[in-house]
Write a structure and sequence with these properties.
The protein is an alpha/beta fold and 138 residues long. It is 34% helix and 20% strand. The chain has helices at residues 6-13, 21-34, 80-89, 109-115, 130-137, and strands spanning 3-4, 40-41, 50-54, 62-67, 72-76, 93-97, 105-106. The strands form 2 sheets. The protein has a 5-stranded mixed sheet with strand order 2-3-4-5-6, with helices on both faces. Strands 1-7 form a two-stranded parallel sheet. The two termini are 26 Å apart.
Length: 138
């Protein structure tokens, strides 16, 4: 069974006018205060639309990733207790996940296209994983 995240995306999209790179930078600074050893992967020069917070362990598990387009973040369940409150304080819609590759979500393609700057084709929006959304909107 999939979780429809259309309303979460719509809620975040309503606040996208006040969102962007400076807001994401503030969020990353707040996260760095909690997880100072965790590297950030965000290539702003390449125009990446998601910033990833990696686990400090060598496996480079993604602890969370935050959208530049809308105040939305996916947070690994192992980090939700630490990061969830900080992200929510910043006005971010938080989706907690077990595995970024688990086919868990569905969403209305119209909600996606209205929320994100661009959405690549080729994803089944009736059954997708967090990584699919990241890839389709990066």
């Amino acid at each position: 069974m999939t979780q429809d995240i259309s309303e979460t995306i719509r809620a975040a999209a309503k606040r996208k006018a006040s969102w962007g790179k400076p807001a994401v930078r503030r969020v990353l600074d707040a996260v760095a205060a909690i997880l100072p050893e965790s590297p950030i992967d965000w290539d702003t020069g390449a125009g990446e639309r998601w910033a990833s917070i990696l686990d400090k362990n060598p496996e480079t598990k993604v602890a969370a990733f935050v959208s530049v387009d809308i105040p939305l973040a996916f947070v690994d369940e192992d980090f939700a207790k630490e990061l969830g409150p900080v992200l929510r304080e910043q006005g971010i819609e938080v989706l907690v996940l077990r595995d970024i590759y688990e086919l868990t979500y569905s969403a209305d393609p119209t909600a996606l296209s209205e929320a994100f700057r661009s959405v690549a084709s080729g994803v089944d929006w009736t059954n997708f994983c967090a990584q699919d959304l990241w890839w389709a909107t990066i």
